[in-house]
Amino acid sequence: MTETLDLFSWSPPPAYPDVPGRRRVDTSIEAAEKIEGRAHTLRGLCLDVLRRNPEGMTADEVAHELGESVLTIRPRMTELKRMGRIVDSGVRRQNRSGRNAAVMKLAERN
Question: What is the count of structural domains for the chain?
Fold first, then answer.
């Protein structure tokens, strides 16, 4: 029996930024797979924090507010920026490492 593909209802699997990014390295793939189930929820939590802080926040500040590692939150902020949900406010503040970090705020459509 031959399987028939419906080419009009097929859609490609989700891709970055809808799913966590990964490189072709086993540790990167493992990390992306591990966070994939939480990424959508974490992006929503980041948006909630930014809604409560309309002047904007750095990824480090959002991570601190959520009690999460900046290594977990920074990629979610990048995904949200790629999705057009948040934008760079143009303001810079020092992060915990002493480097300047972009202050991100909600995009107008949120």
Answer: 1
